[in-house]
Amino acid sequence: MSVTINGTNGVTYNDSTIQGTSLVKNKIINGNFDINQRSVSGTVSLSAGVYGHDRWKAGSGGATYTFATSANVTTITITAGTLQQVVEGANLQSGTHVLSWTGTAQGKIDSGSLAASGVTGTATGGTNLTVEFATGTISKVQLEVGSNASTCEQLPIHQTLGLCQRYYQKYKNDSGATGEGFWGTGLQDSTTSFVGGFVFATPMRIQPTAFETTGTATDYKVQIKGNSSVTCSSVPTVTGMTSWGARLVFTTASGLTAGEAGIYRSNTTAAYVAWSAEL
Question: What's the rounded Cα separation, in Å, for the pair 170 and 252?
């Protein structure tokens, strides 16, 4: 196969397919559905605008889907409604883009018409763009510059996770032990209040718009000196957030010592803290 390389268009193959100068050609994040921080499973039923797999949310009519993974390819089967991804305008330049995928579902770009893989549309640099899929199967979703679809790009899993964490980050106790979810350190502010700092693994798109917990106070505790711990009487709250971190407050009925340090952690395997800055 012959290729033409220049600093403007990148690599042009003899079938007119263009690989841009960016090392990441796919504007879709998590197009292989590898990342599932929300741990959806079984038959996934989502109300309008609610997220399932990372970066994928239900359309205006909601969405119902199942999924299965074989040979490191996850296939989504949409049985009702639509599934969509909003591509951040900061990752787009103006021009024609082509949307491709493997599967029976029809897809579209923005307000275009639903069609089989190979749909084209026009992006405006700096403006968010939405891709959307109706019922059927989808896998290996890709949106790239040009009008000719190329082989779906496979990023390293850690890189895909980092891209997803710009929009959503969830920190779970995945140790298998009830008290092993260590999230951070802080100060016992009073006999009933512990304040801890949390630094995000990846800076988020904006200051998070939502903070999530299990909703159960006893899922959380504060470790103090002597390897002792105090179970929380209220779920953690946030008293300050930036795009790179947050300040958390853990409340107990008693048992803390003002001025001493401590560690905030899980008290059950279900415990988690999460932040959202989704589009």
Answer: 23
**What sign for the dihedral angle of Cα 169, 170, 174, 178?**
positive
Note the pLDDT of residue 5: 66
Q: Which two tokens stand for residue 278?
A: 């989704």
As beta bridge partners, residue 15 has: none
Average pLDDT over every residue of 258-277: 97
- Going across the sheet that includes 18-19, the strands are 3-6, 10-13, 18-19
The per-residue pLDDT for 16 is: 59
Please, how many CA atoms are within 13 Å of residue 93, restricted to the half-sphere of its CB?
A: 9
Residue 168 pLDDT > 80: yes
Determine the pLDDT at residue 257: 98
Can you give the pTM of this predicted structure? 0.91
Report how far residue 225's alpha carbon sits from residue 189's, in angstroms, rounded to the nearest whole number. Answer: 15
Q: Please report, to the nearest 10 degrees, the dihedral formed by the alpha carbons of residues 90, 94, 95, 101 taken in order.
A: 10
pLDDT tens column, 205-217: 999 999 999 999 9
pLDDT of residue 178: 85
Q: Which long-range contacts (CB under 8 A, 24 or more apart) does 233-237 make?
A: 233/192, 236/264, 236/273, 237/211
Query: What is the phi-psi region of residue 71: left when phi exceeds 0, alpha when psi lies from -120 to 50, beta otherwise?
Result: left
Q: How far apart are CA 69 and CA 66, in angstroms?
A: 11
Give the pLDDT of residue 8.
Answer: 46
Question: What's the rounded Cα separation, in Å, for the pair 6 and 9?
Answer: 6
The position carrying tokens 């001493």 is 260
Question: What are the CA-CA distances from residue 213 to residues 72, 79, 170, 236 (Å)?
Answer: 30, 30, 9, 7
